[in-house]
């Protein structure tokens, strides 16, 4: 019962966000909560240093590539998480990605031994990630404000709302029995965490060797997210090679 | 409006679609020319990542590829941003040099992650005054990712002046980074140059 109420509240809040935000092509950075965001960023940096790094040292295979255990855990979580992506593909009226991810799910669940391995990627069917933040974008919601979330890292108000909905969107929750069912929303987080560990070298590079790692992470996330959503590339009017005085450089 | 002028108006209207089909003034840089530059650079990149070797060796190869195919002075000038207006000729030169070693070391290190993969050029498109060449990086066991090379012949020969990986543009990231350094050093360009030298 409280679960159902929570779902309804979520739906209402998400629809509210979607309704009051007009679609627009954003090329700028909208960061009204910069002060709070920077505080969270410092916290995240601490977490990366004290938790992620030792974890990487144990889980990696030493050559910068993820170790076998990490890769397997990531594969399994990613496979459990795939039906949630398919639901989003359908909500976005994207039958091609829905079919792609469905075939992927079937291959990895069978040939990949319940998703422990990822033969689909090797056979040319890499994951096509999808989330409810993207669904909101397709439905016309604007990006909103930039937000840095604890542990999870860079996001936007639209993508944060989407993240909460994603917790309840996996249809496997309806077919899997009770105790295991509760682990399903976590698959999203686990898959996320394994890729954090997997890319921890690049992440540490940005966090530790930047003059302003907050600004670097913000720009990196926003550029990449807008690219994923098919919004236009880097502020093209700003990079005209003929419009700059390069005398002396 | 007299009949004649109306008629010429109408015929001008009729001619419009024809006009738009006439050959346009030649682009400064053609997409195939840009693509062949990127093809050459990519061939060398593929050689470098197939060869592997120590971090120092890979960075060294990257430095040479960068020197030959990248518009280094534009990238440095762009990264410095508006501060360039106050920079003396000597400062510009010193910055350019320090920035070059900083950026090749930084991206050379990342470049190591591509070892064992391949880069494939897929297509190109003329955009405004430059050409964008789209490529894909395939790493074994991972989803391929997109790399875009921005090529112009601003200097008289085709060179790339920006690279974007999955939408993340090197120019924008580096201008943000140098801007942050300038802020930390209260706009002191010499201090930023010293900091860049230290970082490499």
TrEMBL record, chain A:
<comment type="similarity">
    <text>Belongs to the MlaA family.</text>
</comment>
<feature type="signal peptide">
    <location>
        <begin position="1"/>
        <end position="21"/>
    </location>
</feature>
<protein>
    <submittedName>
        <fullName>VacJ family lipoprotein</fullName>
    </submittedName>
</protein>
<keyword id="KW-0732">Signal</keyword>
<dbReference type="GO" id="GO:0016020">
    <property type="term" value="C:membrane"/>
</dbReference>
<dbReference type="InterPro" id="IPR007428">
    <property type="entry name" value="MlaA"/>
</dbReference>
<dbReference type="Pfam" id="PF04333">
    <property type="entry name" value="MlaA"/>
</dbReference>
<dbReference type="GO" id="GO:0120010">
    <property type="term" value="P:intermembrane phospholipid transfer"/>
</dbReference>
<keyword id="KW-0449">Lipoprotein</keyword>
UniProtKB/TrEMBL annotation, chain B:
<dbReference type="Pfam" id="PF05494">
    <property type="entry name" value="MlaC"/>
</dbReference>
<keyword id="KW-0732">Signal</keyword>
<feature type="signal peptide">
    <location>
        <begin position="1"/>
        <end position="28"/>
    </location>
</feature>
<dbReference type="InterPro" id="IPR008869">
    <property type="entry name" value="MlaC/ttg2D"/>
</dbReference>
<protein>
    <submittedName>
        <fullName>ABC transporter substrate-binding protein</fullName>
    </submittedName>
</protein>
<dbReference type="InterPro" id="IPR042245">
    <property type="entry name" value="Tgt2/MlaC_sf"/>
</dbReference>
<dbReference type="InterPro" id="IPR006311">
    <property type="entry name" value="TAT_signal"/>
</dbReference>
